[in-house]
Amino acid sequence: MASTQTDEDKRKLLKPKVSTDDALAILNEFYTSDSQKAEVVRELDSYDDANYLVKIDGIKALLKIHNGVESEKYIKRHSTKKAKLNDGESVEGSIIDLHTAIFEHLAREEFKVTTCKTIPALASQEDGDNSVSVKELPVVSSEHSPKKLVIRLCAWVHGIPLSSTKYFPLEVLVDAGTYLGRMCHALDDLAASNPAALELSKTYHAWDGRNLVDAMRYVEHIDDPQRRKLVTSVIDTFRQVIIDGGEGKKFRWGVNHGDFNDANIIVSDHDNTGTRVAGAIDFGDTIYRYLFCPVNTAPAR
C-alpha cells in the first residue's frame, strides 16, 4: 500500500494495458450470466489503473482493473490466509481491502453518502471474497506480462464531474462542503468501528500533505527560477514549522478521502433544487492523515 518512489516507478510498469475486448471478456467471465448482455462503452482516464464505463443489461457500472502493485499486495495477503507464516513474518495490507471496507461502510443509509458501491462477482474466490476477481492480464511492461490483476465492478455514480461544468451556483459549493462533512463523519465512524480498516489506512503515501518535504526532489524540474524559489520556500517553511517545530503534532488525524477536488465531485441536475452534488469518486488516496487535508484539497484546483 505504500506509495514510495520505488512504488511510483513500479506502478508505471505494472499499469494494466487491457483492450476493450479484454474488458468485455472480464465482464462475461465474472459478472454476467448467459442471459445478460454486457457492453463496454468507453475507457476512462486513470493514473495507474484501468477504468471502463460498462453496461450490464443497459445499467451503467464502473469496471476497475487495479495496478499490479496493489494487486500483488492483495493476492499475497489473501494467499497467506491459507498458509502459516513463519515467526516474525508479516504481510503488508492492501488498499484494495481498505476500499472494500470503505464502500461497504459508506453504503449505509444513515450516512447519506453516495459513492462507488461494490457489485459482487458471481463466484467467490477460494478465500470466499466475492468483492473482487483476479485474472492474468497484460500490463505496460512486456517483461512482466501477463500479470495477475485484481478487478472490481462498482455501481455507477450518475452525473458529471464538477470540473466539467462551465457555470454553477454558489450553492453547489455549499452542498459540496456539506457532503464532505458527511463523508468525513462516516470515515471517522469506520475508523472507530473497524480496527482492521484503520490499520490498513496507516501507510505512507507520496501525495499525503504531511510528506510535503519529500516533494523537494522534484523541485529541480521546475524551469522558472521564481517559481522554483517560491516552492522551495514553502517546503522549507513546512519543514521548519510543521516537522522540526513540532506544530504538526497538534493537528487532528483521521481517515479521509484525500482527493476531494472538482474532478472527483459528481454533480447532477435535480428538478426542484437545481444542480446538486450527487456523489464522490476516486478513493485511491484515502489514508490516515491530517483531518484538514480534504478541506485543503477541495479548493486547490
TrEMBL record:
<dbReference type="InterPro" id="IPR002575">
    <property type="entry name" value="Aminoglycoside_PTrfase"/>
</dbReference>
<keyword id="KW-0418">Kinase</keyword>
<comment type="similarity">
    <text>Belongs to the aminoglycoside phosphotransferase family.</text>
</comment>
<protein>
    <recommendedName>
        <fullName>Hydroxylysine kinase</fullName>
        <ecNumber>2.7.1.81</ecNumber>
    </recommendedName>
</protein>
<dbReference type="InterPro" id="IPR050249">
    <property type="entry name" value="Pseudomonas-type_ThrB"/>
</dbReference>
<dbReference type="GO" id="GO:0005737">
    <property type="term" value="C:cytoplasm"/>
</dbReference>
<keyword id="KW-0808">Transferase</keyword>
<dbReference type="GO" id="GO:0047992">
    <property type="term" value="F:hydroxylysine kinase activity"/>
</dbReference>
<dbReference type="Pfam" id="PF01636">
    <property type="entry name" value="APH"/>
</dbReference>
<keyword id="KW-0963">Cytoplasm</keyword>
<comment type="function">
    <text>Catalyzes the GTP-dependent phosphorylation of 5-hydroxy-L-lysine.</text>
</comment>
<dbReference type="InterPro" id="IPR011009">
    <property type="entry name" value="Kinase-like_dom_sf"/>
</dbReference>
<feature type="domain" description="Aminoglycoside phosphotransferase">
    <location>
        <begin position="102"/>
        <end position="286"/>
    </location>
</feature>
